[in-house]
Design a protein that fits this description.
The chain is an alpha/beta fold. The protein has helices at about 20-30, 50-55, 70-80, 100-110, 130-145, 160-165, 175-185, 205-235, and strands at about 10-15, 35-40, 60-65, 85-90, 115-120, 155-160, 190-195. It has a seven-stranded mixed beta sheet with strand order 3-2-1-4-6-5-7, sandwiched between helices. It has eight helices and seven strands, in the order βαβαβαβαβαβααβα. α2 links the parallel β2 (about 35-40) and β3. It has a single domain (about 10-125, about 150-200), classed as Spore Coat Polysaccharide Biosynthesis Protein SpsA, Chain A, CATH 3.90.550.10. The chain is globular and about 50 Å long.
């Protein structure tokens, strides 16, 4: 049975998502158990901020200049941890598929998991070559001894006490990976949940390769830091 007495907050980091942010937020608002939604407008240069503000019941926070996803999430957490029992991260480009965020919340509300992570269906078009995902999966195993398919998924829900016990101030695109390594090493129950969500997928063009290059670099930097730390602890 769902515990509807829990305060659930969604944090939505957003950068230049004017074409998708309204549908994403409307879908989140339709989820009964979500009481608060914080949009962190991370230095957008389009109409993301204005379009998010047009939706009633949404708290929109401006962050300038653009500081990256990690710092946007951290800013949202500083607000959400004050009064939330459960916190969920939601990318701004999910559009109507954000309704499936509810699937991440149910296992936590029913106390079957401490953390849930969305497992997306296969991409609808060819994007990268799997290098970043492969690196992340290998890095999680090296640092925790556990295998997980969703190390880079941005859609995840947490009991608040989990977030209070780990480092949640990672930079850039390394935030999801760094957090999942910390969570697994602390012994929390992580559940991967199949969802029918979709992203605004990047292709095999210049902008797509630039995006994945940044993601690869940020992922690598987190893994180098974590792996060195793990080796020092084992000595």
């Amino acid at each position: 049975m769902k515990d509807l007495d829990k305060i659930v907050t969604a944090i939505v980091p957003a950068y230049n998502e004017q074409d998708r942010i309204e549908d994403t937020l409307s879908a989140l608002k339709s989820i009964e158990c979500i009481q608060y939604i914080y949009v962190i407008n991370d230095g957008s240069t389009d109409e993301t901020y204005d379009r998010a503000r047009n939706i009633k019941g949404i708290d929109v926070i401006n962050q300038f200049p653009n500081k990256g996803k990690g710092e946007a999430l951290y800013k949202g957490l500083q607000l959400a941890l004050k009064n939330s029992d459960i916190i969920v991260f939601v990318d701004a480009d999910l559009e109507e598929s954000a309704k499936d965020i509810e699937k991440l919340l149910v296992p936590i509300l029913e106390d079957k998991a401490d953390v849930t992570i969305a497992k997306f269906p296969p991409a609808r078009r060819k994007g990268g070559f799997g290098f970043v995902k492969g690196l992340a999966k290998w890095g999680v195993f090296i640092n925790t001894g556990k295998r997980i398919d969703t190390a880079l998924s941005g859609q995840r829900a947490f009991k608040s006490e989990v977030l209070e016990q780990i480092n949640n101030n990672y930079k850039g695109y390394g935030v999801e990976l760094g957090m999942v390594i910390d969570i697994l090493n602390r012994g929390y129950n992580v559940m991967e949940v199949d969802v029918n969500m979709y992203h605004n997928e990047t292709g095999r063009d210049l902008s797509g390769f630039i995006h994945r290059g940044k993601q690869f670099w940020h992922t690598l930097m987190v893994l180098i830091s974590k792996t060195l730390s793990t080796k020092l602890k084992r000595r």
